[in-house]
Each structure stands twice: as C-alpha cells, then as structure tokens.
Amino acid sequence: MPEYKVYPGIFNLITIFAAEIRTLYMMKKIFSSILLIASLQVSMAQAKYSSAWFGPNANPVPEFTDARIPAKTTISLMGDYYFGFGDQTLNGYAKIEIPLLPECVSLKIWSTVLENYQVTDALSAARGMGIIPDRITKGDRPFEIRDGKTYGTANGDIYVQTRISLLKENTTAPAIILNATIKTASGTNFPQRRYFDTPGYYFDVEAGKSFYTNGKFISEIRAVANTGFLCWETTNSTQDDATMYGGKLIIGNPTWKLENTLSGYWGWIHTNSKLSPLGDYGDAPLVYAAKFSIMTKKIDYFAQYQYGIKDFPYHQIRVGVSFPIEKLTPKYK
Hints:
By secondary structure, this protein is mainly beta. It folds into 2 domains: about 1-45; about 50-330, Beta Barrel (Porin). About 15% of the residues lie in helices and about 45% in strands. It has 2 helices and 13 strands. It has a 12-stranded antiparallel β-barrel. The protein starts with 7 loop residues before the first helix and ends in an 8-residue tail after the last strand.
C-alpha cells in the first residue's frame, strides 16, 4: 500500500481554514439574531400612538365641563358602549370631583374600568395587535408573531386634574377656569393596542357664559369654549404635541338640559413626512357629542351619544348618574 505524507504546512492551512469557516458561521448567526431583534424593535416602533389606531379609551378627546366648579364633592358613575368600524368595547367609567375650595378650586380623578373588547381580524392586523416578542428566536419563524386573539379585557389610565377658577361669571364677563391634568401610564394591554404604555398631560382653559330667557321650557342658554395644549409620549422619547379646542351649547331649565359639543385636538406627527410618510398617523381626532340630563334633588341621570367625525373611528353610547356627597366635601370651619 502506498504511503501518503501530510505536510505540516498544509495541515495548518486546513485547520486555519476550518476555523475561519466556523467563525464566519458563528458571526452569521449572531448577525442574523441582531437583525431579527432590530426588526422586531422597528415593528414595535411602528405602533401609531394615536386615537385612530388604539382602543377608544387610549387617548380620547378630553372632555370639558360647563365652566363651573361644584360646591359639593360629586361622584359620577357611567357605562360606555363603543361600536362600529370593527371594534366593540364595553367599559365602566368612574369620576370624582372634590372642591377644595367650593366653586373656586377642585381636584378631579377619573378612570376607565373593566373594559371588554372585541375587534375584527382585519382591524387586528391593521393595528398590529398581539405581537409576541419572546417567540422571536425559536426556529425560522417571521419576527411578527401574533397571538391571534381579537378579544379580551383591559383597565384604563388614571387621570388627575386640578381646576382653578380664574374669573367669576357676572353680567358682562364669562366664568374662566384653568385645568391642569396628568395622565398616568397605568392602562393595560398595550400589545393589543388598548392603552398607551406612556404618560401624558394637558392644560386647558374653559370659558362659559349663561343667558337667561325667563321662559318655562328653556330658561337658560349657556355657551362654553375650550382651548388648550395636549402632550403625550410616543416611541424613542418622541412627544406628540397637540392643540386642543372645543365648543359647547347648553339649553334647558333646572330640571333638564341638553348639551351639544364639538371638540378635538390637532397633533403634529401626522404632518411630519418622516414620522408619518402616509400622513395617516391619526392624531387629529374630531368628535361630536349630544348629552341629555334629567336633574332631581339628589341624583342627575344622563345619556350621551358621541360620533367620531375624524381620527376617532367609534360611535359611543354612554349612560350614567351623578350625585353630590356632603360627607366627602372638605370643611374648614
């Protein structure tokens, strides 16, 4: 049998070549993993933090009052039903306003509770709902893996507001109230696009003036205007800033009243070609609401219908009660 000699130089070259191949393979795996993680981050960053692409309670148009601060602590309990455009949502809503100085300064706290929702498959895909990042490294699956759920539950953000009367209403001047509000990031179920995972705040001014007719059926007509500044955090420490606006007309008498409100805000991101190439960021909602209330000595009953005109794809029906509690009203005597 012939003898074959393996020269040391050739053997070393083969060993070095094999090591280089193995190193390149490991680098390829590392690079692929980094690329997948980066792609996932880009995918998650594509979530549009706006009223058009989240649930109805994520960042709604802020409500404003009739430009009055109550004399007694007032609790409001409501139930909401949102429907249309592929999203059905049921939730409770609780609010308390405590007059620290009656009719002058108050503290208001409110939140959405026990939200139940169901959306269509098409809307779930459009919003990018249910992406599961912890499955990214298993096999060769695409980095966007959804859990397939189109229904579930969530709890809302907590809002805390301070209200200060700047000017009392008189025969010639309107009442003017300054509101300062913070929104926590306590809302749950961000992956299903129900609530933002970021905080926000807004400042606004309400101005209201009543005109009395001395009529029996309609004894008061009240006009209210609202304007302010709204801000919330989106991704990569980017803020979306918006101008708030609204108008309200109230007619009625001491036993009933009808409110008609048109309000909205105008965010800047949808106008930015880099952050919103298609201009569809959806951060400029406009809504109309009609609210009818019946007032009794102890409890007010009300029902409201709200329609999203722009960037708020929902109809809303709300029913609720509001009542003062003397024992919870601060007393300083």
